[in-house]
Automatic annotation (TrEMBL):
This is Sodium/hydrogen exchanger 9B2-like isoform X4. It comes from the Eukaryota. It is found in: Membrane. Keywords: Membrane, Transmembrane, Transmembrane helix. It holds the Pfam family Na_H_Exchanger. Belongs to the monovalent cation:proton antiporter 1 (CPA1) transporter (TC 2.A.36) family. The lineage of its organism: Eukaryota, Metazoa, Ecdysozoa, Arthropoda, Hexapoda. GO terms for biological process: proton transmembrane transport. The keyword Methyltransferase does not apply. PANTHER family: NA[+]_H[+] HYDROGEN ANTIPORTER 2, ISOFORM B (PTHR31102:SF21), PTHR31102. It comes from Agrilus planipennis.
């Protein structure tokens, strides 16, 4: 009888007599090992990986620019390179600040202030009713702070049974719309030339242009492209984004800058209503695309705003009056908000929480705070530059004062002041 080795198949059930390697791991073991290694090296890899991806993309853009252009324009001493350094440092500082429960924009803003006062980067602007400008600017609240905090509380079930988060978000949106429109109208009046009746008529014209353009472009984004288009998400993102960009720069080109922001808001609002009728909800893919874009523009935006704050020209008089002009109206607003909800179905604690939700200021102040200063540099008037610089300093101080305090109060007092609704307890506990 012939000798049969281990590797000869005797029947269909026979298998080679193999030994597994000493350090053999199957696929599930390797995945588990990789996850454990990531947790050991970087406990919050989900968050930090996004930061690494953004930084890597920025560095790739800079490397490509170095290959195409001379070092004079993209080298370490160029403005582009300094802006990239600002982006990376602002993003890192925002992540560090967020670990303490504060809005990331606070860290980004402080990094911009640091860059300016160590004289690493200074942005040169391109080629009195300033009190009214400051009023509209400080009256706005920050959706970038309020909405994430309220959504976190909503996810935990706090305030859901009475729709408190819906009330606060809707009211703050209307408030910001009025403030942005008023800010643009007053700014146009300040920097416009001509007779007084021409300046007064600019207000209604700005409103008409902003609403007309916003409605028209929003309807266009609703019908174009077709819902059967393969690239509908990309095309809608580009159409809405570039259309809003045209609204911002085009309104300035025709002399009605105040209509730009209004056109952007109305266009996005009209388009989102149309998309809901087609089956999309508020968490649609176009919104997610703009969230991704904001990850790039947020650190640069807040960093550049911080760069405008120069401690060398900062006076104690301006700081003290800036703090008072921020806190006193804020206290009056909270009192009025508390009184206006007395005859609703909210209890005392819920009324207090709604009043405190109006504290944070950041997004509108950062986006519009430097606009008067830019316009003042264009006309070259020394008094206008001085007043506009004061407006910017007060706007930055309002962000530093109210943004972290408001976020902390909302997150800490929400679980204590609001009723919690669980899936098996719709009445709340």
């Amino acid at each position: 009888m012939a000798h049969i080795t281990n590797f000869e198949v005797l029947d269909k059930q026979a298998v080679p007599n193999e030994r597994k390697p000493l350090f053999h791991m199957d696929k599930s073991d390797r995945n588990s090992f990789g996850s454990s290694l990531k947790k050991i090296i970087c406990p919050k890899w989900h968050t930090t990986s996004n930061l690494f991806a953004l930084v890597l993309l920025i560095l790739l853009v800079w490397a490509i620019s170095c290959s195409l252009f001379e070092l004079e324009y993209v080298g370490p001493s160029s403005q582009l390179f300094k802006l990239i350094v600002l982006f990376i440092c602002a993003k890192i500082s925002g992540c560090i600040v967020s670990l303490f429960g504060l809005p990331p924009m606070v860290g980004m803003l402080l990094m911009g202030v640091l860059f300016r006062n160590v004289e690493y980067l200074e942005v040169i602007p391109p080629y009195t009713t300033f009190t009214s400008v400051l009023r509209f600017l400080l009256a706005a609240v920050s959706p970038a702070v309020i909405i994430p905090c309220l959504f976190k509380l909503q996810g935990l079930g706090y305030g859901v049974n009475k729709g408190i988060h819906t009330l606060v978000i809707a009211a703050s949106t209307v408030n910001d719309l009025v403030c942005i429109v008023g800010f643009g109208i007053v700014l146009d009046v300040i920097f416009s030339s001509g007779p007084w009746y021409s300046q007064i008529s600019k207000g209604p014209i700005v409103l008409a242009i902003g609403f007309a353009y916003g409605i028209a472009w929003g309807v266009l984004c609703y019908f174009i492209p077709s819902t059967e288009n393969e690239y509908i998400v990309t095309l809608r993102t580009l159409l809405l984004g570039l259309g809003c960009l045209l609204s911002a720069v085009g309104s300035s080109a025709i002399g009605y800058a105040g209509a730009g922001a209004l056109g952007c808001i109305v266009a996005a609002f009209v388009a989102s209503i149309g998309w809901r009728r087609q089956g999309w909800d508020s968490n649609n893919p176009v919104r997610n695309n703009f969230i991704l874009l904001w990850k790039f523009f947020e650190p640069v935006s807040f960093g550049l705003i911080g760069i405008e704050v120069n401690f060398k020209i900062l006076e104690l008089y301006t700081v003290l009056w800036g703090i008072l002009s921020t806190l006193v109206p804020l206290m009056l607003r909270m009192i009025v908000s508390f009184l206006s909800t007395q005859y609703s179905n909210f209890n005392v604690k819920e009324n207090v929480f709604i009043a405190l939700s109006w504290i944070p200021k950041a997004t509108v102040q950062a986006a519009l705070g430097a606009t008067p200063l830019t316009n003042a540099y264009i006309i070259g008037d020394a008094n206008s530059i001085s007043y506009a610089n004061t407006v910017l300093i007060v706007a930055v101080m309002s962000i530093l004062l109210t943004s972290p305090i408001g976020a902390i109060l909302i997150m800490k007092l929400g679980p204590k002041f609001l009723q919690r609704t669980l899936p098996n307890n719709p009445q709340g506990i």
